[in-house]
Amino acid sequence: MQKRQRLNLAVVRERHAVNSEFTFIRSCCHSVLAMLDEVPVTKREGAVFDATNLRVSWEQACAKCGLGTRVEMKSEAGNRFFKYQGLLVHDLRRSAVRNLRLAGTPEDVAMRISGHKTRAIFSRYNIVSTDDISEAMRRVEAAAAKMLPRGNGVTSVAQARRKSLKAAVGA
Predict the structure, then answer these.
(1) Per residue in 120-140, is it b (16+ CB within 10 Å) or e — as a string?
(2) pLDDT at residue 131 above 80?
(3) Where are the alpha helices (DSSP H) in the chain?
């Protein structure tokens, strides 16, 4: 992927950043893009991650570029393992589903792209923020306001409801 395409992708993600999770991913995208640009062109060939254990390769890559931490631990049996905290592959999948939805992509197409086979599982990844809910309510209010009769001094749905209740009580 060329530098301009990667930057355009980061800009699209940035426009849809509405809560802390997406703000974190937006800043991660810029960090990762900067690091990718530092890799010499001659070394940009071959596999990025080891296909035998994507999770471990992902954790190591994120730890190296500051997107996570790996702490060596020992089990009660004396076995060595790493505890990881940071950016997960599934964080990107969730963000991709949200970005597809915000871009107006039909759910069936978004499901095919993300690999979700059922709508129930897709719904778990389809993040709905408080901003989404507020925007939906603004749209409902605007649509309802268009349906209100004109010339009666009513400017909102709530005002129309109060007026009709007063009329019902007074009648």
Answers:
(1) eebeebbbeeeebeeeeeeee
(2) yes
(3) 3-15, 20-38, 54-64, 89-102, 107-114, 119-125, 130-147, 157-170
Distance CA 10, CA 32 (A): 10
Print burial letters for 146-157: b (CB count within 10 Å at least 16), e (below 16).
eeeeeeeebeeb
> What pTM, to 2 d.p., does this model score?
0.47
In which band, very low, low, confident or very high, does the pLDDT at 74 lie, cut at 50, 70 and 90? very high
Q: On the CB side of 77, how many CA atoms lie within 13 Å of its CA?
A: 3
**Alpha-carbon gap, residue 8 to 14, rounded angstroms:** 10
Using CA atoms, how far residue 136 sits from 38, 97, 128, 139, 147, in Å, is 42, 19, 11, 5, 17
Q: Which helix (H) or strand (E) holds 71?
A: strand 68-74
Amino acid at 134: S
How long a stretch of residues is the chain?
Answer: 171
